[in-house]
Amino acid sequence: MQIHHLDNVEVRDDGQKYALSEIKAGENVIKYGFPIGHAKCDISVGTKIDPKNLASNLAGLGEWVYNEYAEPEISKKNGTFMGYLREDGNVGIRNEIWIIPTVGCANGVAKTLAKMTGAKALTHPYGCSQLGGDMATTQKVLCGLIKHPNAGGVLVLGLGCENNGIDRMKEVLGSWNEERVRFLNLQDCEDELFEGEKILNELKDVVSADKRVEVPISKLRIAVKCGGSDGYSGITANPLVGLVADKFYEYDAKILMSEMPEVFGAEQILLARSDSKKTFNSVAGMIKAFRQYFIDHGEGIADNPSPGNIAGGISTLEEKSLGCVQKAGKVTLRGALNFGEQPEGEGGLYMVNGPGNDQVAVTNLAACGAQIILFTTGRGTPLCGPVPTLKISTNTALFKKKPHWIDFNAGVLFEGEDKAKATEMLFNLCIETAEGKVSCGEAHGYEDIAIFKDGVTL
Q: Does domain 3-55 have CATH number 2.30.130.110?
């Protein structure tokens, strides 16, 4: 078995963890400097630690105490990139045309129109037979996508009889650019493909006049996400993304992170960086609400690591969370965002409501305005969101096996690559992507959205 050393930590190439000292039954097991659970039995030196001998400590809603945060002095930088400046002041890194159905019944038409015109169809199964909060969530997520700056033009497709009709969507949407956001109700026209193609061609004429201009890096909203994690995630890729987040923060950019259940057990790390008691209360409240969501459905809040996570070396949710939150670096926590809400104010970290599910999380991040997603993975996944999704492998083996999935290999840190150099390389890749470099996912046409659901379907 090959042994790697990184930051004075011994890492074995099987991604598993082994006891460095004797651990008695009931004692906490420490990783990343924090408990990741307690020993179910006595564990001797060198013994593999996994779900057979390790149990989570997580239970209940959790309690955290606010302490005033002394925000460190950061030398802010000025920098620019070439992007599409929109009339509302936001900046797109793509100038695409999106087709967004109000209801799943319009998906087939959306897909056909996309094939006919080269537009991007963001299909989903909802918008009808939904009640209360579920309907509101669908509307907020879709409205966030309709206003996304990466879309130079949007065709909103309604059916005509759905709960989430175009008129109701317009109420939630508020204001919009009528030249760039168009609507088509399928039941109102004789030939929906003819009418849809006509509108999309008109949108093409509009976006064809758009040009990239020099804009501040502070206009970027960088989302961080992990999926298909393994035992290396919290050692290579996630800390590296955290360093890139820190670098973007120096330019006053906004960092967005979701996956509420993958904060459980590591809340104190993020909450300790709250810029105010108001921020602390809003983020803590969002985390508690998601814990309550688990409890209300009769689920244990510690039941999170997937079979792939466990096979890759992650045993408890605390372990997963402590690795997960490293993607946020040391960025100051500025606020909490609900579905479709946009971050306003200073650069910093904004927590986005939603589950750890990869499809739902990338959708929520995009709906809150993220133009690019940094997605770390140890097991590998082709999933990409509706915005450029850069895949960062935790290990070189995955990078070599799936080069068509992976945009950057953090496994080089095991091979002696300087951490500062790797940070600069990944940061530069983000800027290149923002300026038009095509990601692996974009090259293969991989893009998905999924909307969070918690209620009755009629």
A: yes
